[in-house]
Amino acid sequence: MPFAADRRDNVAGYEKAMLTYVLRRLIGTLPVIVLISLCVFLLLQAAPGDPADILISDEASPEEIAEARRRWGLDQPIHIQYWRFLSAALVGDFGHSIKYDVPVLSIIGERFPATLELAFFATVLSIVIGVPLGILASKRPNSWFDNVSSLSGFFGVSMPNFWLAIMLILIVSGYFNLLPSSGRNTFDVPGDPITGFLILDSILQRDWTALVDAAKYLVLPVIVLGVNMTGLLMRMTRSAMLEVLSEDYIMTARAKGLSERAVVWGHALKNARITVITVVGLEFGALISGSIIVETVFAWPGIGQLLLQGITSRDYPLITGLVLVYTSLFIVVNLIVDFLYAAADPRIRLGH
Asked: How far apart are CA 349 and CA 39, in angstroms?
C-alpha cells in the first residue's frame, strides 16, 4: 500500500510543520507580551493619582491609607511591583483586583463571555451583509447598486460608534420603545449559566423565553459594533472580486458555458476569500478590544466596560491583566487566521 503510506507521511509531515509553526509563533510573541505589560505598567505608574486615595474613604486616616497601600503592594518600588506581577502572571496569576477584591482572572472570566458573544454576533452580521453586498456590487461595477453599496460602505466605515449608539437608543428605544437600551437581559442576572453565553445557554436549557429576551438586548449593540466591519468587509470584498473577475481563468470559465452563479460563487469567490479571511480575522480582534465605547453606552457587562472601570479606579492588576488578555486574544486570532490561510489556499504552507 505505497499510496496509503505516502499519505500518512504527508499528514505526519504537515502536523509536524504545524506544531513547529505554532511553537515558533508562541515563543516569538513572549517578548511582545512582556514588553506590552511593561509599557502598560510604567504608564499606569506615571499617571497622576493614587488608587488608595481614590478607593479609600475621604475620612480615612493616614495610617489606614498606608495600611491599604501596604496590603495592595503599592508601597514597594516600581521594579519590585512589576517583577512580582510578571512572575505571578507567568503561572497564570494576575493578582487581586484592588477595586473588587477578587482574583483578576475570576472577574475577567465572568465578563469575557459577554464581550465575546457581542463580537461574535457582530461578526456574523457583518459577514451575512457585507460579503453578499460586495459580491453583487462587483458584478455590476459603476451601476446604481454599486454606487449605493459603496456609499453605504463609506457610511459604515466612517460612522462613529458612540453617535450611532445614541441615535439608536433615542429612536428605537426612546421614541418607538421597540428594544431595550441597556443591560444584557431583563433581570441583568443569568439564571444557572452553563457557558456564560446567554444565547447558547438559553438554547441548551431550551428556555425560549430567555432566548428571545437575550436576543432583544443583543440587537442594538450588535448593529452598532458591526456597522464599521460591515462597511469595510463590503468594500474589501468588492475590490477583491473585481480583481479576480478580470483574470483570464474567469473568462475561460465563462467561455466554457458555466453559469454566472458558478463562475462568481464557485471560482471567483474561492480565490477572493483570502481577503475576506484577513478582514474578518483582523476586525474580530478589533471588535473585542474596541467594544469599550459600545459596552459603556449600552451598559453591556463585558470586559470593555470592566477596563474602563479599572482605569477610572486606577486598578493596576485589573488593567494590566485585561491588556494581557487583549494581547493574547490578538495572538490567538492571528494564529487562527494563518491556519485558515493554509486551508483556503493549498499553496500556503505554515512550515515555511
From this structure: 34
The three three-digit cell numbers of residue 34, written as one number: 512582556
With contact defined as beta carbons under 8 Å apart, do 210 and 109 qualify? no
**4/10 Cα distance (integer angstroms):** 10
Per-residue pLDDT of the chain (352 residues; tens, 9 = 90+): 454 555 555 556 656 766 777 777 777 777 887 888 888 878 777 777 667 666 676 667 777 777 777 777 777 788 888 888 778 777 777 888 888 888 888 898 889 999 999 999 999 999 999 999 988 888 888 888 888 888 888 888 888 888 999 999 999 998 898 999 888 888 654 456 778 888 888 888 888 888 888 899 999 999 999 998 898 899 888 888 888 888 877 888 778 887 777 787 777 877 788 888 888 888 888 888 778 889 989 989 889 888 888 888 888 888 888 888 888 888 888 888 877 777 766 565 555 5
* 113-344 to CATH, choices 1.20.810.10, 1.10.3720.10, 3.30.300.30, 3.40.1000.70: 1.10.3720.10
- Residue boundaries of the structural domains of the chain: 113-344
80 CB burial (10 A radius; 0-12, 13-18, 19+): exposed
The three cell numbers locating residue 35: 514588553
- The single residue listed with the C-alpha cell 505554532 is 22
If you search the block for the grid coordinates 428571545, which residue do you land on? 212
Q: If you ran DSSP here, which 8-state letter would residue 330 be given?
A: H
* Model confidence, pTM: 0.83
Quick one: cell of 348? Answer: 500556503
| C-alpha cell belonging to residue 350 | 505554515
Count Cβ atoms below 10 Å from residue 124 Cβ, excluding itself: 12
